[in-house]
């Protein structure tokens, strides 16, 4: 009896080991000889988009959901002039991204995307103590807001490496640059909840949003780069380069 159990255990172990998802089944593959490689990749990403939203790429392959996107911490500190931290941020809308342009190069495994996102809506918590122009603004509480027509340039560069005699790829930290179009932010409880000062503070921030966003966006870009690089590397971790871009 013991022996059978051990054998079954071993068999299960072997079965589960070999059923490790390689590429998620929902990803359509592009041949490396595809004349319009960029178009093929764009289509493949489009098909994957609803799955990226939920994070369930197939029944076994689960990555962090894009909808809503959860960011845990964006911190910004520049001397005494600008100290801000945003936590528990929940963003709706990122999965509706539109790829405007892609330049893919398989020789040096670089993928440069330009995407636009029609609307992002966020809620979260903030703590800040900043000086914009000459006005001191401080507070701590809930926040919400929206970004419209955001545009991002995403540079992805992967390195090839060998594992069990096959070539695999791993991405370096993505380089993400974001431009925000129309935007709105509402910080509740500014100045300990003083309603008049709170209104003035919010109005001031919104009227000078380029100055405010210029301080925030680098932290946001870094945070997004870390999340997306990690997800991309999970997706490519167990799929060889030949499986991803077959030579046929
Ligand atoms: C990759 O190759 C393309 C085409 O030759 C070139 O334009 C691009 O600058 C290269 N990128 C890197 C990071 O080497
Ligand atoms: C890749 O395979 C290893 C075992 O071979 C496994 O531990 C790991 O979870 C797999 N990665 C993904 C993202 O499936």
TrEMBL record:
InterPro entries named in the record: Haemolymph_juvenile_hormone-bd, To_sf
UniProt-listed GO biological process terms: circadian rhythm
Record keywords: Biological rhythms, Signal
One GO cellular component term noted in the UniProt record for this chain: extracellular space
Pfam families the record matches: JHBP (PF06585)
Signal peptide stretch: 1-21
Family recorded in the similarity comment: Belongs to the TO family.
Name of the protein in question: Hemolymph juvenile hormone binding protein
């Amino acid at each position: 009896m013991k022996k059978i159990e051990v054998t079954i255990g071993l068999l299960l172990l072997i079965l589960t080991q070999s059923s490790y998802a390689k590429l998620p089944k929902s990803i359509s593959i592009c041949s490396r000889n595809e004349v319009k490689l960029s178009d093929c990749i764009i289509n493949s990403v489009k098909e994957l988009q609803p799955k990226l939203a939920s994070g369930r790429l197939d029944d076994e392959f689960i990555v962090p959901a894009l909808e809503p996107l959860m960011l845990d911490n964006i911190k910004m500190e520049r001397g005494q002039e600008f100290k801000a931290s945003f936590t528990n941020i929940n963003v709706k809308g990122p999965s509706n991204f539109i790829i405007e342009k892609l330049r893919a190069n398989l020789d040096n495994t670089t993928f440069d995307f330009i995407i636009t996102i029609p609307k992002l809506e966020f809620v979260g918590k903030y703590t800040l103590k900043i000086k914009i122009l000459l006005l001191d603004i401080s507070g701590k509480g809930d926040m919400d807001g929206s970004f419209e027509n955001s545009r991002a340039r995403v540079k992805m560069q992967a390195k090839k490496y060998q594992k069990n005699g096959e070539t695999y790829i791993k991405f370096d930290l993505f380089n993400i640059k974001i431009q925000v179009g129309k935007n709105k932010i509402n910080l509740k409880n500014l100045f300990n909840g003083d309603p008049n000062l709170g209104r003035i503070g919010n109005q001031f921030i919104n009227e000078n949003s380029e100055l405010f966003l210029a301080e925030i966006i680098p932290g946001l870009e870094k945070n997004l780069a870390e999340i997306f690089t990690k997800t991309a590397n999970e997706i490519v971790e167990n799929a060889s380069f030949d499986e991803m871009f077959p030579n046929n």
